[in-house]
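Model it.
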Amino acid sequence: MPQACICVLNLRKSFRKRNGLFGRNRTEEWALKGVSFQVERGGSYALLGPNGSGKSTLIRILATLLLADGGSVEILGERLPEGERRIRQIIGRVSVDAAFYKKLSARENLLYSAFMYGYTRRAAEKRSLEILEQLGFPARRFNDPLEDMSRGMQQKVAITRALLLNPPVLLLDEPTTGLDPKSKRDVQEFLEELRAEHGTTILLTSHDMAEAERICDSIGLLADGHLVAEGSADDLRRKADTNNLEDAFIRLTGAKLVDEERELEQT
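Modeled.
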């Protein structure tokens, strides 16, 4: 029987907001309202949802960047928050808003991360250049400051940083945002190879239906903090009685995949 790698049970998270004159009134808004799902070891699972559905909040909880208000999370048998130190050692995270030392070069940013985990300079540089080459990053830009690079190039460095230590679990929060079509395809192919060769477990959030269907075995649909449906892309199309995954999303969630609302987790 396949073993579970990521176990999320009845996960809940709220954010408190100040309203009114001088922020005297406080309201509580729930980003996650009892979300449960599992990802098998070596499996891949996509979370699709409109802005404000709770996708990034969920990823941040799994990455130990936020504390949940209820429910439980286990990753490879380590439970949050007790096992957060061990979990940080076994996950790689790519975020749409990746943080860097932007006046430093790609090389310096990657070496800094590698040194924290005991990599030697030679090994870190070799592995970094191998990954960057597969992602279509020009080697001649390796020593350029991040602030002089495009959004797409910076995202490739972020992906390389997450993959540098070959973690058994990857948390990918809209990893191909800002990439051109070829670069997006390069990233998707690399992720497929990584999973095939190393059995890497992948949890992906995305607005890209085709990307989710290509990379992931199972898809969960988030809406207003609830997981409203899950299954393979074919399962979801059958449930919604449509041949189009985007139409299935709208019918099952009652929402468009991308809307004009600001994500709750950004407030």
